[in-house]
Amino acid sequence: MPTSTSKRDAIIHSALTLFAERGYDATTIPMIATDAKVGAGTIYRYFENKEVLVNTLFQHYVTLFREALEKDYPKESGIREQFHHLFQGMVRFTNEHDHALYFIKTHTSAYFLDAESREQFSHLLMILQNFFDAGKKKKHIRELPSKALIAIIFGGFLQLYQLIRAGEIEASEELLAGVEESCWDAVRHHQ
């Protein structure tokens, strides 16, 4: 019989997958229960309702993503090396947490996010915004709003990741290096 920890983990995994693929409104507690192979009542033992579940997921994965970007961040390095670190953090996070980055992106402005979820996301955005602001100050990054630069990087990366998941493109170190260079070229200041 599965332990309570493995049941909770199964619920979280199923909820993440379904919320990412179907969205919050199209995902029901019975769907999550069926996918997780638990009863719907089991979900309510861990989470008061669907809104609490989605906020718990959102906060958890935003925290993990933020940690992936911050871990060993090369503060004293140049802008290009810092960009490399951030890009590789996205790759690692996506490889370790299938669906999580897409889930975060598609739910960042959702009506059901609570104050804690919004605050956690704000902290994540600050890492990226600070990077772009510092790069613009040093004239290494294009003079575009930081949120636009973030959208360029994440939009391209997420589309690539969807193509990889769909089997339309094969992931390789060479491909990811080329995509990183293309993303860098999109945001860097051209002399």
Summarize this structure briefly.
With 191 residues, the protein is mostly helical. It is built from nine helices and no strands. The protein is elongated.
Q: Please bin the fraction of helical residues.
A: over 70%
Identify the overall geometry.
elongated
Q: Would you list the SSEs in sequence order as H and E?
A: HHHHHHHHH
- What composes the largest sheet? none
Mean pLDDT: 93
How far the N terminus sits from the C terminus, by CA atoms, comes to 63 Å
Number of helices: 9
Number of strands: 0
Structure description:
There is one protein chain. The protein is mostly helical and 191 residues long. It contains 9 helices and no strands. Helix 1 packs across helix 6, helix 7 crosses helix 8 and helix 8 runs antiparallel to helix 9. The chain starts with a helix and ends with a helix.
